[in-house]
Amino acid sequence: MSQLNLWSLENTAISLLQHPSRVVAALLTLFILRRAIIRFFFPAPFTVAARIPTYLPFGIDFIAWSIYHNATSQDIILWNKIFWRYGRGSLPYTVEAVLGPDHVIFTADHENIKSILALQFSDYGKGAKFHRDWKEFLGDSTFATDGRQWQDARHMIRPLFLRERIEGLSVFEKHTRKLLRLFNGPNGQRNNIDVVNPFFRFTLDVATDFLLGVGVNSLDNPKEKFAVAFAEVQKMQRLIQVSGPLQPLVSKVSYRASIKIVNSFVEQFINRTLSLPISELENLAKNDKDYTFLSALALHTRDPAIIRDQLVAVLLAGRDTTAGTLSWAIYELSARPDVVKKLRAEIFSKLKPGDTPNFADLKSMKYLQAILSETLRLYPIISFNMRIALKDTTLPHGGDKDGFQPISVKKTP
């Protein structure tokens, strides 16, 4: 009997080796069955977040789902699906997925977000993996570092945004006039236009003008080399971030070619500024007309790599946040002529037609301030963010049947 069993096993092994596709199919079937059994008979305990089921190794099915929604600008649809389908009770905004070796928690709960960004700030950080993923683009800037490195970078750039430095609106005015001409037809008539792309070009022109002293003029030339490269880097960076364990399969050819263009553009201004003597940089810092973020930064450090990282980070922050807020504000105002009428009345009560507003004028427009605040409330400028647990810790919501109890969060290895 034992000889027959051995012969049978040997034949089965030979048959499987001759048909490797059967091996893969069998293993995949066993994996899916195991996941289904765990989901239905061994659900996650209430002390951790509700689990998003995945049926392929390393959570590849969920990763593919995420990549598709990100590539088609449907991230919000994905998040709504996973919260409402898999979240708990009347507070379903915290769920967890196992992607490769990582346990990834997704949360839109305001108490959890407040804890991560404020109340338990020291428990969470960006981590080594985030720094590696963003190193080529953001280097060692404030947006890619933790701890002392983050504090040093923040300490360096914070004084450069003094109120008196941002009160001068001339850099905004010239680009705003150009933007308004673009919105009008060739003979000044009203035009139907998608405002998103022009706003992104406008904010890029303003940001480069403020930071470097020279705008890239992408409003005049939508195909401007630096503008196209910067957009490509951002697109690829998002893809890299959502790919999880599949990152090694993402081609970085266009990403690195675009990084090279961005670096080449920025470095020419850095080298020119660093060639100036300290005395001349100090004079520039005292002169509002010739002041630039770059010249002020060069007074704090002579390291071109540090200057490059901070410039690119501030450029990224200044461009996307402003363009997004402007786009959503116009979107909402286009459906509310009553609000537009009230806003125009406030503007004309402060300024005459043709007047250029100053910082004090804008601050005095309370209704305008309220519109911008409501836009930011409805459409936060940072739609999603990422952190890792620097130690074993907790989040206040996501546990128990109703989702109102705390959950445990393990330190990220």
TrEMBL record:
Coiled coil: none annotated. InterPro entries: Cyt_P450 (IPR001128), Cyt_P450_E_CYP52_ascomycetes (IPR002974), Cyt_P450_E_CYP52_fungi (IPR047146), Cyt_P450_sf (IPR036396). GO terms for molecular function: heme binding; iron ion binding; oxidoreductase activity, acting on paired donors, with incorporation or reduction of molecular oxygen, reduced flavin or flavoprotein as one donor, and incorporation of one atom of oxygen. It comes from the Eukaryota. Its cofactor is heme. Keywords: Iron, Metal-binding, Monooxygenase, Oxidoreductase. PANTHER family: P450, PUTATIVE (EUROFUNG)-RELATED (PTHR24287:SF5). Belongs to the cytochrome P450 family. This is Cytochrome P450. It comes from Amylocarpus encephaloides. The lineage of its organism: Eukaryota, Fungi, Dikarya, Ascomycota, Pezizomycotina.
